[in-house]
Design a protein that fits this description.
heterodimer, A: about 160 residues, alpha/beta, Rossmann fold, B: about 220 residues, four-stranded parallel beta sheet
Chain lengths: ~160, ~220
Amino acid sequence: MSNSPAPFEPKIVAFCCYYCAYAAADLAGSMRLQYPANVRLIEMPCTGKTDVRVLLEAFENGADGVYVAGCLEGDCHFLKGNIRAKKRVQYAKKLLDEIGIGGERLEMFNLSGSMGPRFAEIAQEFTEKIRKLGPNPLKKTGTFPGEMPEERVAHDK
Amino acid sequence: MIVAEAKPLEEIADLLGEVRKILVVGCGGCVTVCLAGGEKEVGIIAAALRMMYKKNGKELETLEVTLTRQCDPEYVEMLEKYITDDVDCILSLACGVGVQFLAERYNKWVVPALNTKFAGGTIEHGVWEERCGLCGECILHKTGGICPIIRCSKSILNGPCGGSQNGRCEVNKDIPCAWQLIYDRLKALNKLELLLEIQPPKDWSKARDGGPRKVVREDVRIE
């Protein structure tokens, strides 16, 4: 058996709008498209529900990357929810920079419910991006709820 | 309302320095309305600070409480049960008044998380503007409800000055000339004759020039 450490597998949380990204994820599944298992989806009624506090909480609880996926601009079911989400994501990115986690670990994407392949592509691209950035900097100094110590050892290496 | 704005996170962390446990106290009054120091902002600042400390290899425990108002002793009193020996510091998300009330009441080090800006109002969601100079002697009845003390850059009482151009202030073209606004308003109200009265120099002793102010209502004092 090889002694090389396990490759870093990022934990990614995706806040998905029920009317687009969540439906697109469903479609990606129906189409049997492969996308990384690193992405954990959270369904939202609209990305207008995006809360800076919740985005920060994801990072505090050990997420390596977070993205918010909403409808295409101009297509929001509630008219402006995705535009508001975009501004809140911008604000949270600034906070993450100040904290030292790095705003690049948080992104906003726009897609429609029929864009299953695009959903898989976003999941793939974002996972790759976070894989390159490495683990959430908080992991070097502490543990997270529900995290196995072995996993942390792998990250630290 | 009193409008305030959060200090940059890094500055707050610098002010706190070496602490292990802090009490983050929000205020349900003005700073909740101007989205600077309410329950939600308490949650955000506390989480951000915990992460900042954790990143630097330090543990920071935060207790989060939001009082109805920090400028009233009866609410400040409610904080007592949270002030334990192991709390190193109180981080107040209130205006300067709230910070001082906490500092006066408790024998703890109190750090302000906000910069208190002005007395103003909401122009639109997310935009607040200064409206009152707290001068202590209101003259809005003479100026059509537009305050020359705070909205005129020079606070002049018999305006406009020569710097008023096309309705804008010479200080910054984004600032409307208060005296132009006053003129337009009085004209619309058919009360331009109010401007014929020359205003004498203002008695600034009723403002900050007279030192810290106090209002006493004997009829409502309990003892």
